[in-house]
Specification:
Blueprint: E1 10-11, E2 14-20, E3 26-31, E4 34-40, E5 50-52, E6 57-60, E7 62-67, H1 87-97, H2 106-118, E8 121-129, H3 137-147, E9 154-160, H4 171-179, E10 184-190, H5 199-213, E11 216-221, H6 225-241, E12 248-252, H7 254-258, H8 261-274, E13 277-280, H9 291-297, E14 301-303, H10 320-330, H11 336-345, E15 369-372, H12 377-383, E16 387-392, E17 395-399
Parallel strand pairs: 2-5, 2-6, 7-8, 8-9, 9-10, 10-11, 11-12, 12-13, 13-14
Antiparallel strand pairs: 1-17, 2-3, 3-4, 6-15, 15-16, 16-17
Helix pairs in contact: 2-3, 4-5, 5-6, 6-8, 10-11, 11-12
C-alpha cells in the first residue's frame, strides 16, 4: 500500500452549533486561519462555507508533543518484530532494516501524518533521525510531507541523534546543519550516560550547539532514578548558564517519577526555575509522571504518541487523546477536575510544544478545532470517540 494523499482541504467560514468544552452551543466564525468570533448559536452572519456541528463537543486541535513520523512502516504489509529487545539492540535492528522499508521517505511520513490528522491532531512536534546513515534525508522527507498541508497542519521538527551524539563522528556536524533549517525547532539527545557513556560530554555538546544556533534541546532520557536525575540536574545547570530558559525539554524522564518525594520536589523546583519542560508517552508498567506535583511546581507538561508501528514496536494508533486516556488510567485519575486537566494537556496546555502562547476556542486563536460526539471533555477522554471533524488553520482536514 502507498501513503494516503493529503485531504482535499476546504476553507470554512463558520462552525455552527458546537459546544466548546461542553458549554452552551455557539457559532465559531473564522477567516484566514484565525477564529474571528465566538457567538451564541444562530447569531453569526450567514456565510458561504459553513459546517453544521449538530451540537457536538468542540475541543481545540490535539497537540502531539512527541512523535517520530519518519520511522513508521505503517502503510506497508505487517512487519514482524525482530532484533534484540534492548535500546542498543533496537538501534542496530533499525539501522539494518530501515532502508529496505523505505525509512525514511516521503511515503512513510505522509501516511503517519494522515493518521495523526484523522485522530484530531493539528500540531505536531516530531523527532526525526539524523545520523551517519540517513544524514538529513529524514528531515527532508518530513518537510515535504508536511508541505502538502500548506500550513493547515503545524509540524515542528527535532533533529534527533537516535544512534548517539559523541560515539559516531560526524553526528554533531549533522545536527548543526539541521539546526539551520527553518523547520527545525530543536536538536535532540539520547541517554547520555548509557548511549554515549559520557553524560557531561553529550549534554555539554548539545546545549552548546543549541545556544550557538538559537534552537532548543529536546532530549530522550530513559535512565532511571538517581542516574537519570543527575542528567536532569546537568540539563538544568546548562540551561541556566547558557541562556536556554524555556528551550529545554526532557522526553520520557522516567527518573522523575522514581525519585524520593523530597528529591523530586527539589528537582521539579529547579526545572521550573529555568523553564525545563517534560513530555510523556504514558508508558505502561512504569510509574507515571506526577501531574499534581508537576502543576504545583510549574513544570509544563504534554503528551505524545512516540513511534508507532515501527521497527521498535508494532503498537500505536497515532491518537494522542488515546495516550492521554492511557496516562489518566495508569495514574488512577478519576475526578472531573483531573480528567479535564488531562484533556487540556492534550490540547490547550500542551501547545507550548509547538511554540504557541494561545491555543483555544477563543477569538484571535488559530482556527484548530476538533468535533466529537461526547457530552463533555471528561466523557471524550474516557471513551476516546471517533473524531467527527478536524479543522486545522481554518481548513477541513478530516470528516468522518
Amino acid at each position: 500500500m502507498s501513503a494516503l494523499p493529503p485531504p482535499a482541504m476546504l476553507d470554512i467560514t463558520c462552525l455552527r452549533h458546537v459546544r466548546p468544552w461542553g458549554g452552551d452551543p455557539v457559532d465559531i466564525a473564522m477567516d484566514a486561519g484565525i477564529i474571528t468570533a465566538v457567538t451564541p448559536a444562530g447569531s453569526a452572519p450567514i456565510g458561504v462555507r459553513e459546517f453544521d456541528g449538530r451540537g457536538l463537543l468542540a475541543l481545540p486541535g490535539i497537540v502531539n508533543a512527541h512523535a517520530h513520523v519518519d520511522k513508521s512502516w505503517w502503510g506497508l504489509p505487517w512487519q514482524s518484530y525482530g532484533g534484540e529487545g534492548t535500546t542498543e539492540g533496537r538501534i542496530r535492528h533499525e539501522r539494518a532494516e530501515r532502508e529496505a522499508l523505505g525509512i525514511p521517505s516521503l511515503e512513510r511520513s505522509a501516511h503517519v501524518l494522515r493518521e495523526f490528522v484523522r485522530h484530531g491532531t493539528t500540531a505536531i512536534r516530531t523527532h526525526v533521525d539524523v545520523d551517519t546513515g540517513v544524514g538529513l534525508r529524514g528531515i527532508e522527507a518530513v518537510e515535504e510531507a508536511a508541505a502538502a498541508y500548506e500550513g493547515a497542519l503545524d509540524v515542528r521538527i527535532v533533529a534527533f541523534p537516535q544512534d548517539g551524539v559523541l560515539r559516531r563522528p560526524g553526528v554533531l556536524d549533522s545536527l548543526r546543519d539541521a539546526a539551520t533549517r527553518p523547520s527545525v525547532d530543536a536538536i535532540g539527545g539520547l541517554d547520555p550516560a548509557t548511549i554515549d557513556r559520557d553524560p557531561v560530554g553529550q549534554i555539554d555538546a548539545i546545549t552548546a550547539l543549541a545556544a550557538d544556533t538559537g534552537v532548543g534541546v529536546d532530549i530522550h532520557l530513559h535512565d532511571p532514578a538517581e542516574l537519570g536525575a543527575f542528567q536532569v540536574e546537568l540539563l538544568v545547570d546548562r540551561a541556566s548558564r547558557l541562556g536556554l530558559r524555556d528551550r529545554v525539554n526532557i522526553a520520557h524522564g522516567f527518573a522523575v517519577a522514581q525519585l524520593a518525594p523530597s528529591h523530586r520536589r527539589d528537582l521539579l523546583a529547579a526545572m521550573a526555575e529555568v523553564g525545563v519542560t517534560m513530555t510523556t508517552v504514558a508508558p505502561l508498567r512504569l510509574p507515571q509522571l506526577p501531574l499534581a506535583e508537576l502543576d504545583a511546581a510549574g513544570v509544563r507538561f504534554a503528551f505524545g504518541t512516540d513511534g508507532i508501528r515501527d521497527l521498535w514496536s508494532p503498537y500505536g494508533t497515532g491518537d494522542t487523546l488515546g495516550i492521554a486516556w492511557q496516562y489518566a488510567r495508569a495514574a488512577g485519575l478519576v475526578r472531573d477536575e483531573d480528567l479535564l486537566r488531562v484533556v487540556r494537556l492534550a490540547t490547550t496546555a500542551g501547545a507550548w510544544a509547538v511554540g504557541r502562547d494561545q491555543h483555544d476556542l477563543v477569538e484571535g486563536a488559530r482556527a484548530d478545532v476538533v468535533l466529537v460526539d461526547a457530552e463533555n471533555p471528561m466523557d471524550a477522554l474516557v471513551r476516546v470517540p471517533e473524531r467527527a471533524l478536524v479543522v486545522g488553520g481554518g481548513r477541513v482536514l478530516h470528516v468522518a
